[in-house]
Design brief:
six-stranded mixed sheet; 3 helices; 14 strands; mainly beta; single chain; eight-stranded mixed sheet; Metallo-beta-lactamase, Chain A; about 220 residues
């Protein structure tokens, strides 16, 4: 699989002809909207910074001359399977981008199984611990996407603490590019203190996980 970062919490995962996207950025968001097609779209938080399903639709399905394909959209907790990809969504909380008078919002943590690996995307999580249901349902984590930007999601320090407790093979920080606190990434890497690697894209096979234990990879948008 190949993983690329498109700002904020948006990551595209490609496996041959299959494209999956976490938290696509919509029009009217804090960040530039994404512009690519996806077969499966997962939305953790119903906010323009993360719910741009229309932006990852192939062509224009409403126009016969530009007929397209609408991605299979997953927007909340539950169990799903599509094109050989198994997804579990777990209920959690977010304080990101709340409307006036709103105290908290629904956030969905996604665990995705593909190519014999487990990817976990924490979304716009503000909870400092995962629920018992999520911890039990997720099991071992190969790649963990963790928000680090504060301002309604985990702070850099709390994000590192939670990430380490989940014992993933690879940790990918998010919510630092275009959104989140200034220098959130620098703070997170300082908290980690054990080095990191910056890459434009991550090409990953199961065998590449051997010997990795909480390795921090920064994917540059």
């Amino acid at each position: 699989m190949v993983i690329t970062h498109h700002g904020g919490q948006c990551f595209k995962v490609t496996l041959g002809d299959l494209t999956l996207v976490f938290d696509p950025i919509a029009k009217g968001a804090s960040l530039p909207p994404v512009r690519f097609g996806a077969d499966i779209a997962l939305v953790s938080r119903n906010h323009p910074d993360m719910n741009g399903i229309e932006e990852v639709t192939y062509g224009d399905p409403s126009n016969p001359l530009r007929a397209g394909k609408v991605p299979f959209a997953i927007t909340g907790p539950g169990e799903y399977e599509r094109q050989g990809v198994v997804v579990q969504g777990f209920l959690s909380k977010s304080h990101y981008g709340l409307a006036k008078g709103q105290e908290e919002a629904v956030n969905t943590i996604y665990s995705v199984e593909l190519e014999d690996m487990t990817l976990v995307h924490l979304g716009a999580l503000s909870d400092t611990e995962l629920s018992a249901a999520a911890r039990e349902g997720i099991g071992e984590i190969d790649v963990l996407f963790v928000p680090i930007g504060g301002d309604g999601v985990l702070s850099a320090a709390k994000a590192h603490e939670l990430a380490v407790s989940l014992e993933p093979k690879i940790i990918i920080p998010m919510h630092w590019s275009g959104i989140g606190a200034d220098k959130a990434l620098d703070t997170f890497l300082k908290e980690a203190g054990n080095g990191s690697e910056k890459v434009d894209k991550l090409t990953l096979k199961k065998k590449d996980l051997a010997g990795r234990d909480g390795s921090i990879l920064v994917l540059t948008p």
